[in-house]
Design a protein that fits this description.
This protein is α/β, with parallel strands linked by helices. The protein is about 35% helix and about 25% strand. It has 14 helices and 16 strands. Strands 1, 2, 7, 8, 9, 10 and 16 form a 7-stranded mixed sheet that branches. It is globular, with a radius of gyration of 21 Å.
């Protein structure tokens, strides 16, 4: 098979690229390793920012539909100490520029906006190789192949496309999250639901913390944050949820029970997510016929920018392709000229998760908020 624009990865960035290309009348094909749109959970709340995520959705012609997905009140922020004492309580007055939506619902909006057949599910990339003159061949796990004159790696942290451009590989930040859900919190976990409040809760001390979001229908999405070595994290046996939970709970002895309930009362098994980053100044030499976007290009810690930047990248790349019809190299040169400084600036301006869990937390966050 031959394709003009081949996108690897059906995350928000790859789908934004495909959608904005479609708006400009340019077809593309998205290949995704997952078997279907519902093959796995799609994460929790995203704050979609007025300076990058929302402009991308505007270019996609989806900003009004996006507004219908916004969960009112979720921009509220509460900061607590380990005893459950409120240190900061910022309500959502409706004027914030970062409305919250569920990642899965936003992904579905993008998917539904594409022509049928644009996304090819169950296509896990096995190898990618250059053929010369800017053309590449992608070989999938089932033996199928596609040859393309524009290949875009939108395939996340462990991109199979990135090695065509860069020798950079993600490195462990020293921080991991453990994820779980407390379902129907208002009825099944009322004390903890009241503590979380209407939006986001953070409870921090040096080296560890708890984070929770109120999602749709009173569901509470919880993360344990731990600054621990990979060896320590790898010792969490998620095949034995009770034992894993007990080990994690042991790191929070002395904390208020309403807070530790975010660990012990989970209705889903704990999922460990190790956090990795690429170098802040990650870039590559212009290579004919191929580029990257989103985490494949500029993987950072959880700073709220990742999904927004991925969609912005996708819209920017589509705009460049549309502005240079028939000249892939001019389009990629224009796109990357803006991509690299934009990515570096985002990293420089965003809080580092290691600093958030640093020796002076939570007081450092309070000073920033004040």
């Amino acid at each position: 098979m031959t394709s003009d624009v081949t996108i690897i990865g059906a995350g928000l960035g790859g789908l934004a690229l495909a959608r904005v290309l479609h708006v400009h009348g340019i077809p593309s094909t998205v290949y995704e390793a997952e078997a279907s749109p519902t093959a796995r959970a799609q994460g929790g709340l995203l704050d979609i920012r007025e300076y990058n995520g929302q402009p991308a959705l505007r270019e996609a012609g989806l900003l009004d539909a996006f507004q219908d997905l916004v969960l009112a009140g979720r921009q509220a922020l509460r900061l607590m100490d380990r005893d459950g004492k409120i240190l900061l309580d910022v309500p959502d007055d409706g004027t914030g520029g970062k409305p919250e939506v569920l990642r899965g619902e936003l992904r579905r909006l993008l998917l539904d906006s594409l022509p049928a057949g644009t996304v090819r599910w169950g296509h896990k990339v096995r190898t990618v190789r250059p053929l010369g003159a800017g053309r590449h061949e992608v070989v999938f796990a089932d033996g199928a192949t596609v040859v393309t004159s524009l290949l875009v790696g939108a395939d996340g942290a462990w991109s199979r496309v990135r090695p065509l451009l860069s020798e950079a590989v993600p490195t462990y930040t020293g921080v991991s999250f453990v994820e779980s859900h407390l379902l129907d919190g208002d009825h099944r976990h009322p004390r903890t639901a009241r503590m979380v409040g209407g939006g986001t809760l953070m409870a921090l001390e040096p080296g560890k913390g708890l984070l929770a979001h109120r999602e749709r229908d009173g569901n509470l999405h919880a993360w344990v944050m731990l600054a621990r070595s990979r060896e320590w994290i790898d010792g969490i046996d998620v095949t034995d949820p009770a034992r894993a939970t007990a080990r994690i709970r042991g790191e929070f002895d002395g904390w208020a029970p309403e807070l530790t309930a975010l660990i012990t009362e989970g209705d889903t098994p704990p999922v460990v997510r190790t956090l990795h980053t690429l170098p802040a100044d990650h870039r590559w030499d212009r290579t004919p016929g191929v580029t990257l976007l989103g985490d494949a290009a500029h993987l950072t810690g959880p700073n709220g920018e990742g999904a927004n930047l991925a969609m912005y990248d996708g819209a920017a790349l589509a705009r460049a392709v549309a502005a240079h019809p028939g000249d892939t190299e001019a389009a990629l040169t224009a796109y990357e000229r803006d991509l690299f400084p934009r990515s570096a600036a985002s990293v420089a301006e965003s809080p580092d998760i290691r600093e958030i869990l640093g020796d002076d937390t939570p007081w450092s966050l309070l000073r920033q908020a004040g």
